[in-house]
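How a chain folds remains the central question behind the approach discussed here. The record that follows shows the chain in one-letter code together with its fold in token form:
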Amino acid sequence: MASSTYANYSTFFNSKFINNHKKSPFLLSNKNNVSLNFIRLPRTSTVHRDQVSQRLTITNALNTNTLDLTSVVSSKNNSNGSSLAGHDQQDRGPSSRKTRPTILVSEKLGEAGLNVLRQFGDVDCLYDLSQDDLCSKISKYDALIVRSGTKVSRAVLEAAEGGLKVVGRAGVGIDNVDLQAATEFGCLVVNAPTANTIAAAEHGIALLTAMARNVAQSDASIKAGKWERSKYVGVSLVGKTLAVMGFGKVGSEVARRAKGLGMHVVAHDPYAPADRARAAGVELVSFDEAISTADFISLHMPLTPTTKKVFNDDTFSKMKKGARLINVARGGVIDEDALVRALDSGVVAQAALDVFAEEPPAKDSKLVQHERVTVTPHLGASTKEAQEGVAIEIAEAVIGALKGELSATAVNAPMVPAEVLSELAPYVQLAEKLGRLAVQLVAGGSGINSIKVVYKTARGSDDLDTRLLRAMITKGIIEPISNMYVNLVNADFTAKQKGLRISEERVSVDTSPENPIESIQVQISNVKSKFESTVSEKGDVSIEGKVKDGIPHLTCVGSFGVDVSLEGNIILCRQVDQPGMIGNVGNILAEFNVNVNFMSVGRIKQKGKAIMAIGVDEEPDSNALKKIGEVPAVEEFVFLKL
């Protein structure tokens, strides 16, 4: 049965976002592609001609604080005492500022990173702060640097009173930062995603070998005065199959090292480029094939609503009996109670864990105390080299943000003028939803490489900036299957990391230029589809949509025309064009108490094939979907979650 389910990620670009960002001091646009700068202006500020070049313009600054910046030649106080952090600040250095930026480091950071920060601003290192303590102090700082232990909650961001310009996460995961609140308060969030890759991979291999040879247990035994050689007989790695679940940066490094140990390596990552896996000598397989054939399973997947507790009772029941599990990714991807049951039953022979659903885990945790479990306290990035690398990477990212430079590791708010957001808002929603639909239509294991976006518009290239729309299509495609947060700042960087080549084409149409876009088409090349009807005459998975009365609509699936609003969930069916089909499918959904909120049928020719698009309020029961598939005239169908 062809069905796909992805979590419903809310977009940053809703009305609340736009309204809040009309007040944000961090909304800048640049039509000439030079470095954009954060400029903080009081709502009553004015900027005199001698402060900036002739080309600096202010768009309704009292209401939006939105600037169109092409260059800033000096940084002088305005009439209200405000300071402009200008484009040339990097050359002048912080010494010319009236005051240096203030930076709070709330968890231990490598000395090399601290030295970089101290050259730029005033740094306070205050560790082990409670939420109340952090809230009481945060308003004094321009930047906050945290690791995984400090919770940057909405309360903290509110307490900053608009003064906090950037939050830096020294590491990858940002579960402890309220991204939506940071975005609403105009606070940029950056992370350090690259410096600890090797350390995490090495720790994964360390746990793999320690588990296989019972290193931790035998060490504890001999220190207890015992000599139990026969009890701790291990297993060899040579010739065994390792399944790498998630073939990103860390996963691919683990695979490379495992092959050096003589292991046969397979990987599951539905969206990893097949050519990259082949180059590493790794075979990409389905999820079920990976877990059912592997002797060792190493987890390197992000924690998303899709992957939360993906290793559960059902998953363990499909695994090869006696398999061994390693997790240096995120604790939440494993149902820990289910893992204990699998260990007790012998389905899982051993587990080696560096991460947990709650950290630190409870002292009486059955999983931690299990005799066949090897544990470490989240040490994946804990090498001297990685700590220093992360410290320097996050220090440079935070300084760049304070200078106003765009960061490839920014994980939240795009920086575009409020008036552009207002005009493009419905198209932004359309773009993300088309991306989200497209990724669900691609068959797992195909490997997405090439994406083409076609805009039909009456406007010229100078009157339509599509970067935001391209970013949202990228967001829709990547976020459901990744821990990356995609926005205007990092969209191209993220796509490149994922091996995606995104091209754009404009097709001129004779419509009113008052509407920025007539339609958006997303084409994915060289992939197999879960729903063959989406394949165009060129062989691409192709869908098209437009905005009608402010609401995104799906208007074309492959060669079939349809017209459905992109809200809730959609069932697509291809069937023989004959009487009674709408009633047949509608009756099945009614039988299972599924409410239909819209339906559209499109066909190429009379009495041929037709596409039926059905909007439903909730995900139908699997039995309902199965029954739809059993209707004789239904040739294929797919369930899509928006």
In short: Residues 102-195+386-403 form a domain with the Rossmann fold fold (CATH 3.40.50.720). The two ends are 19 Å apart (CA to CA). The first strand starts at residue 28 and ends at 29.
